[in-house]
Give the backbone structure.
Amino acid sequence: MNRRGFVLLGAGTVAAVAFPSYYFFRRIEYDPSLSIPKSLAMIWEKEEIKSIGKKYIIKSDEDSERSLVKSIMSGHDGEQSYDKFIEQKVKQDFQSGNTITVDGWVLSVTEARQCALHSIGKS
């Protein structure tokens, strides 16, 4: 192999590793309002929401922004506003028993995920 071939092979290898790494490890873009559970924000301060979020992360091992946003938004068809969609999802969680107790509070899993997103997110 000549010098030119070696340099091209090395540059190609660096690009092959760098581009996928950038894609998977960059911060995910999402509407910051996703990280604030509206009903809980009426009774809790932001620090309490973050505290509950951190405790949920420990209980669930769900700790990446990407997975939290994906879980919160699963089923969203793009036609409904985020607030309306999440409000309905929280109601469905309670109706189906998809709840979790964190620090003595019974929360829908969607609300707990929002708290977790708030605790690690950009807001």
